[in-house]
Design brief:
This protein has 2 domains: about 240 residues, no CATH class; about 230 residues, no CATH class. It contains 22 helices and no strands. It is globular and about 75 Å long. Keywords: Membrane, Transmembrane, Transmembrane helix.
């Protein structure tokens, strides 16, 4: 059985070169370039200090492990060794599990991992690690990555749809940027004059105790917990894979028609609930309507420009750099205060289909949240990085959470209580209709948002003055106040939406 599966896997690789030669060659080129870069970096680390090697291996190795575990779940990846394909052979689930594991290294990503593991063993040897320990650790690294990918493919085959949409892949890339950008800013802002900076050393120690980074770290920083984690991780992944194969080959799954979900875009990503439908429709509007895109593009520019006068009058750059992120959060939370006016006559779908007001309120906030997270991740991390005091990061997050979530809550009420006319679809985003009103609503939402964030701003000021405990208090108070106002705003705005359906329809028809 194992030999048969190996022959099939090789045949699939050769067939891919024959059928889709261009795609296969491009994939080989990309894999070769990435492997070459990794091998060159590991070779150079052999001559670097142990601290530098530890930092790169901990962060880079954890990122590679996370990629092997997440890409099969979120990307459009199909498993060529799906155990269900071998059900017709009559082989037992244990045999199929073993055969697919043995055949797993026969793939382009697996070969790249093997090459990287060989270079990794050479790096450890250059730093004086025993060759036997280095080879065993390299084997653990490679086996862990392959098993993580196999388990992820199995989980996606059991739980997720066979075809992942490009929208889901876009969300994965967005989440990756949200995580990667703050990490990159954090690493580039550290001072290496006295060896490995304490914050980075703490991060390396933590990653060395996780399943993602233990096998990469313990040869250079040996400890019993990291060794146990490095050994137990592939063992547990192997057990999970066997259980997945058993489930696949012994349980009858209800057939799902792929045609039901193809071509629906964001509707395949959001939940099949009224709020999910509103969120999907709003996402489509936000990505295609220039009125929304102009607002999102202007906000970060305006926040940065607002800092220039402060620097002209003598405010230090380290202090001024902390201002753009809260300003962006304030305006993003305020952005939804008149969202319903942009719908025009489309809002009749919600009213006529008896969508609950709370579902309408939640669905409309999803696009703003999707755009807000990467913008705030960049602004907060860059601001704190320029300031150089990473203990202020909790305070920054608390203030941004209060401003963003508080603005969402108040906007959920104002957009249904006092909507005002805006430029119609197809008109210039900078054109304003000849109607009065709206200024009071804008001011109330802005002032109310600042009042919600006032406690968090107070503790953040104390944190900036040198009180480290105040930073965490700012995070707790800001997140708590923001969530409280958000929940209350959705509830109140939803109740008003339910009661004012006729007036909402009249407003939509006259704008």
């Amino acid at each position: 059985m194992v030999a048969h599966v190996l022959r099939l896997r090789l045949a699939l690789l050769v067939g891919a070169l024959r059928v889709s030669r261009g795609r296969a060659i491009s994939g080989l080129v990309i894999a070769g370039l990435l492997t070459t870069v990794c091998v060159a970096a590991l070779t150079r680390l052999g001559a670097a200090s142990i601290d530098s090697a530890l930092a790169v291996l901990a962060v880079g190795g954890s990122a590679i492990g996370a990629g092997f575990a997440l890409v099969p779940l979120l990307g459009p990846v199909r498993d060529p060794l799906d155990p269900r394909r071998f059900a017709v052979t009559g082989a037992g689930w244990a045999t199929v599990a073993a055969a697919t594991l043995v055949a797993a290294p026969v793939s382009v990503p697996a070969v790249a991992v093997i090459v990287v593991c060989v270079a990794l063993a050479g790096l450890w040897g250059a730093h004086g690690v025993d060759p036997v320990v280095g080879v065993c650790a390299a084997v653990l690294v490679g086996v862990t990555q392959l098993l993580a990918a196999r388990v992820a493919l199995g989980v996606s085959g059991l739980v997720l749809a066979e075809r992942r949409s490009r929208e889901l892949t876009a969300l994965f890339v967005l989440a990756l940027l949200i995580v990667a950008i703050p990490v990159a800013v954090f690493l580039t802002s550290l001072d290496w004059d006295g060896g490995m900076p304490p914050p980075l050393r703490t991060a390396v120690e933590v990653l060395g105790l996780t399943p993602l980074g233990a096998a990469w770290v313990f040869p250079l920083a040996p400890s019993v917990p990291s060794l146990l984690m490095a050994v137990l991780t592939p063992v547990l992944l192997g057990i999970v894979w066997v259980l997945i194969v058993r489930r696949m080959l012994t349980a009858t799954e209800r057939p799902v028609s792929v045609r039901e979900h193809r071509g629906l875009g964001w509707f395949t990503v959001t939940p099949g609930t009224p709020g999910g439908a509103v969120a999907a429709r709003s996402l489509i509007y936000w990505l295609r309507d220039p009125r929304y895109l102009v607002d999102v593009a202007i906000i970060p520019v305006a926040a940065v420009v607002a800092v220039v006068p402060l620097m002209i009058v003598g405010v230090p750059l380290e202090t001024a750099a902390l201002i753009p992120a809260p300003l962006i959060a304030l305006f993003l939370g305020w952005l939804a205060h008149n969202d319903m006016a942009y719908d025009g006559s489309a809002v009749w779908l919600h009213v006529s289909s008896a969508v609950r007001g709370a579902s309408d309120r939640v669905g409309r906030l999803v696009p703003v949240l999707v755009f807000s997270l990467p913008l705030l991740a960049v602004a907060a991390s860059v601001g704190v990085g320029i300031n150089g005091t990473w203990s202020l990061l909790p305070a920054m997050l608390g203030v941004c959470a209060a401003l963003l979530l508080g603005g969402f809550g108040l906007s959920s009420i104002s957009s249904v209580v006092a909507p005002y006319a805006v430029a119609r679809h197809g008109e210039s985003p900078f054109q304003q209709p000849q109607r009065t009103g709206g200024g009071l609503t804008q001011g109330i939402v802005l002032v109310g948002t600042l009042l919600v964030a006032l406690p968090a701003l107070w503790f953040a000021w104390h944190a900036l003055s040198g009180d480290p405990d105040a930073s965490w208090l700012a995070l707790a108070v800001g997140a708590g106040a923001g969530l409280l106002v958000l929940v209350a705003g959705i509830a109140i705005g939803g109740a008003v939406f339910d009661r004012r359906g006729d007036r909402i329809m009249a407003f939509a028809e006259t704008t």
